[in-house]
Amino acid sequence: MAYAEFPIQSLMYITNRPELVFTGGNGSWLTDHNGKRYLDFVQGWAVNCLGHSNQGMIDALVAQSQKIINPSPAFYNEPMLRLARQLPALRDSIIAGARQRSLPA
Hints:
The chain is α+β, with helices and mostly antiparallel strands. The protein is built from two helices and three strands. Its cofactor is pyridoxal 5'-phosphate. InterPro entries: Aminotrans_3, Class-III_PLP-dep_AT, PyrdxlP-dep_Trfase, PyrdxlP-dep_Trfase_major, PyrdxlP-dep_Trfase_small.
């Protein structure tokens, strides 16, 4: 699968891309169309760093995809509200840990 086999000019230009096509991934590694492996430090740029093909992630994505996928941020959705419930406790835990580390012994 070489990229030249496809009408790439139909795609939106984002950046100059090398002449390779990623065809799979596992954990933090990607595999190109020639079977060469690459350590993936970029992933979704500023979006995530979750790895590839993790079974727990696959199961969660399948379950969520059967409910709702990427709804507009202009409306509330159930996962967003569950996250809102968890964030204050997470914030407080992080602050408490930082204070504990910064206090003299």
